[in-house]
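#struct-pred
JK: can someone run the complex with iron/sulfur cluster? inputs below
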Amino acid sequence: MSRVGYIDPNVIMETRNLKVYFVKGGFLAKKQVTKAVDDVDVKIKKGEVLALVGESGSGKTTLGRTMIGLQRITSGQVIYNRDGSPIIIDAKSKVPKHIRRELQMIYQDPYSSIDPYMKVYDALSMPLKYAGFSKKEMQSKIEDSLTMVGLPLDILPNYVFQLSGGQRQRLNIARAISLDPKFLVADEVVTMLDASLKGEIVELFKDINRKTGISMLFITHELPIAKLVAERMLVMYRGKIVEAGSINAVLKDPLHPYTKALIQAYPKISPETKDVIKRIDVKEAEAAQIESKGCPFYHRCPYASERCLHEMPKLKKVASDHEVACYLY
Ligand code: SF4
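RT: done, structure tokens with the ligand placed:
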């Protein structure tokens, strides 16, 4: 068994030096290593909703999938603090089968997550049956979870394709919470919904969190959504956590040039943040970054120095509720 050291009893999910690398090529073609998650240390408290923000391709989904055991780890550890008994997942171990239902994920696309030609009842009962619940338990869990997400029980005989986009996402949420998870990854769950529905679904997640105490990693690229749903946030860029802290601290006083670039897109959040980041071809920056040992934001950063190219800055505490990984601080 892997050594784990001290586990904070208030923390339900933790990653230590977590790395998930993808290797392309080899043999005749040149090997290319993409560092989807690169030396990430994260702690999520019991009952907390933590927002993980960053642009597409930053590694957010890979980090979420790795936490619940859906992605193979290159090195480092994921520690799920299960009622004081830590479950350690590393490059050599997997999430034990009887624990899998406690770690759930809800995906972005409500249209492809569930077979549209399934009946709503079957969509809900299948995972429960697989998890070993009796018929009686299944019925009560189906009814409780539908009620919790605000769907009427009379939709049970309907086909999934008869539901609207908002109803399908509620059904996805019902499916996940019916399994009594302790930790949930919500991956861009409002991205594909109309603006009018986004607020409703965010409120639903907050309500579920309040009523059940399920801890959540809420992945989004939309800062206003992060602000609505969580009290603490992490900013991820090219596999690294570059800024972390309370929502208020990070959004009111963004420090990392990448966080500033993200906030520029939302003038209402921080009107004083100036447009300072180079608008360079992201693909070009990605290619240059593959072999680099330094700061992943080097090629877009107006403040970059020689040191930034060769050495990756570590997350540094700048206030009690604010950390940043940048040589400017
Ligand atoms: Fe820019 Fe250097 Fe800070 Fe990276 S470490 S964000 S390159 S100043």
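RT: quick notes.
The first helix runs from residue 60 to 67.
Residues 256-257, 295, 297-298, 301, 303-304, 308, 313, 326-328 surround iron/sulfur cluster (CB under 6 Å).
JK: thanks, will look after standup
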